[in-house]
Structure formats: C-alpha cells, structure tokens
Amino acid sequence: MPAQFLPLVVSAPSKVILHGEHAVVYGMTAVAASLDLRTRMTIKPHLTHVVVNFPDVGLSDCWTVEQLKGLFKHRPTERVEEEVDLVYLDKIHDFLGTDQSNLRMASVICFLYLYSVMVSPEIITMEIQVESEIPLGAGLGSSAALSVCLAGGLTGVLHQVQGLEKNIFNHLSNAAKKDVCRLAFLSEKILHGTPSGIDNSVSTYGGLCKFSGGNLTPLPITTPLSILLVNTNVERNTKDLVTKVRVKYDSHPKIIKPVLESIDGVSESFLALLERLGNDNSTTTYTEMEDLIDYNQALLQTLGVSHPALQDVCNTVTQFGMHGKLTGAGGGGFAFALVSPSIPEKSLSLARQTLESAGYTCCTAEVGGTGMSISIQEV
After folding, report:
1. Considering Cα of 127, then 54, then 147, then 114, what sign does the dihedral take?
2. Which residues does residue 375 pair with via DSSP β-bridges, in sequence order?
C-alpha cells in the first residue's frame, strides 16, 4: 500500500548578485539577494509510480517501484548527504539512458539522486510537477531554486510519512532550513561540480547573503529594494570571463588588485547603506546606493567584463533617472537598475519600452524577499 501523505506545495526564489562579481573569486566580499521570481513545485501521492513533470524543459518521466529498487541498490552508503558519488551518478545516467552532456535531463538526475539519498530504502510513490518564472541558464539561480524545492519538498513528504509532530510545515526553523540548504547544495554539486553555495543559500534563506573568503552569512533585509532586471540576450561563458580576469591579474597585479579591492569596498559600503536604510528610508541613502552602482559598473568595465549591450542598457536607464550595472560574470547576460522610490512610474514604463524595443527582455522584481516556503496544498 502506498505511503500516505497530503499534497504539498513548495517554492523557492531566484537570486541576483548585487555587488562583488569577480572580486569574490579572490576572497573578497560579494552580496547576493533573493528575487521574487520563483520556482514552484507540487508533490502529491501516486498509487503505483514515481512521476516527474518538468514542463519548462519539456520533460516528464515515470518509474515503477521495482525499477527504482533496481537503481537504488547501487546508492552510496557513506557521506551520502555531503559528497556526490560519481560512480552512482554514472549509474543514474545509465538508468536514464542519457550522457552527462544532456543538460535537459539535469532536473531528473538531481531528483533521482536526492530521492535515493533522502527516501531510500523505502520507495514512496508520488507525482511531482514543477513550474518556474526564472529564466533558465541565465545566471539567476534557476537550478538552485529547483534544488531547494526538491530538498524541501521531499523533506515535507518524509515528515508526514514519519508522523513527526514537529515538522517542516509547523516549525520551519533555522535547523530545518540548514538541512534543506545542505541537501540542495548536494544537488548543485551534481549540476556544477564546485559551486560556491551562494545560490542555494539565498534560495533557501531569502533576504541577502554576504559571501566572503568562503564564508556565507545570511543577512535579513528590512526594506525590500525594487530593481529593473534586463536580459541582454547575449550569451556569455562564465569560465572564460573569470579566466580573462585571472590573466590580467597575473600580468598586472599592481593595477588589477586595487580594482578588485575597490569592488570589495563597494560591497562593504553597500552593506552599510542597507543597514542604514532600515532606519532611514531617505533619498540620500538611495542616491549613495546609485553612486555605488555607477562605481561598480565602471570598475567592471576596467576589468574588461562588460559588453556593448550591457553598456547600452546602463546608458539607456540613465536617460530615465536610474543607475544600472551588470550582474554575474558579465560579457552579456543580465544587468539591473535600482528603482528608487523617487522614480516615477511613467519613467520606469518608458525605460522598459525603450529597452524592449532595442531587443532586450525586461521585468521588475523585488530584492530580498522570502526564501523557501512550504505548505500543505489547499483543496
């Protein structure tokens, strides 16, 4: 007889890096924040199969209990929630009949790995449906949001089946979030090899996250910020851009190191302004934030990681009283502009129209909102 649990809904946010790109690679400070673009997952019981539906990537699949038992007999037994077992990962690829270069299958691979680590040796039949507002592969943490949903959702199923009185639905404590974050990090390792942990941390905890010298510090934000998020639709390669900066650093350390230290200074100054914003929601504070955005974009240009399309976005938003910078590795991808309370709605609308007519994709988003949420699905 299938294990009994009530259908549940779990969601997790995307992320944006506000300051600290590239400097963070050298042990300096980066600041990332959650965005209110979210991935949502529903999990409900199924009589006979484990069913997954990922419509955003055009994937659905299902397996019988016997099929999964055949796979799960290969699951690792040591450090299962800490390190990815590459031999077992190969077994999952073989089970699915796919190779490691098939990125479309990544969602299913992560699900099977986490499911086997968390749920096995028992098989709980269920059906999973995923929907996302987050652009895929654009540097906004879409994979981390999915990983958090998988880890949180499976935890919710287990807590019900085990009959825990203190469970993730009525007691979403820091300890529970830490467990979800750790399991999501395992999923991120499957996808990215050696991720920083920024994406899954922001998606789990929400708010802001300070990352410095390998240490992550979740930071609450009392005053959410609004941004205009702009996709240049220019593809970029993060690894190549990081390597490009490294070559410059090695060739001219006396020039490039101060640039990176200045970016670090921007990050630290921004954190101080955020703290002030909670007590003093004044125009002056927003003006200083806008100055930091301008400084950071200029510094990133100096490193050679901007792009004509990114600069065009920054120049365009300036015409409407806003200040923008690239976010992430640069070389294309996304930029954002701070939308301070003093920006008229008409100016924001005109900025969007101008950018979209130039071929960019825009949306407004709130920065620093809630992290993972989970609840029993209302009938």
Report:
1. positive
2. 9
Residues 330 and 298: their CA atoms lie apart, in Å, by 12
Catalytic residue, from 199, 201, 203, 212: name it.
199
Q: Look up residue 278 and give its amino acid.
A: G
pTM as predicted: 0.85
17-55 pLDDT per residue, tens = 999 999 988 989 999 999 988 999 999 999 999 999 988
Backbone angles phi, psi at 330, to 5 degrees: 90, -160
Q: Is 143 a catalytic residue?
A: yes
What sign does the CA torsion over 271, 276, 280, 286 have? negative
> Under a CB-based contact definition with an 8 Å cutoff, are residues 328 and 21 in contact?
yes
State which amino acid sits at residue 241. L
Residue-wise pLDDT for 51-82, tens only, equals 999 887 788 899 999 999 999 999 888 777 77
Report CA torsion sign: 66, 101, 188, 85. Answer: positive
DSSP characters for 316-332?
A: HHHTTT-EEEEESS-SS
pLDDT tens column, 97-137: 876 556 568 889 999 999 998 987 789 999 999 998 877 76
**Residue from 34, 116, 143, 147 carrying the catalytic annotation:** 143
Q: Which two tokens stand for residue 104?
A: 């479309």
The Cα–Cα gap between 2 and 157 comes to 12
> How far is the C-alpha of 306 from the C-alpha of 114, rounded, in Å?
37
Distance in angstroms (rounded) separating the CA atoms of residues 300 and 312: 15
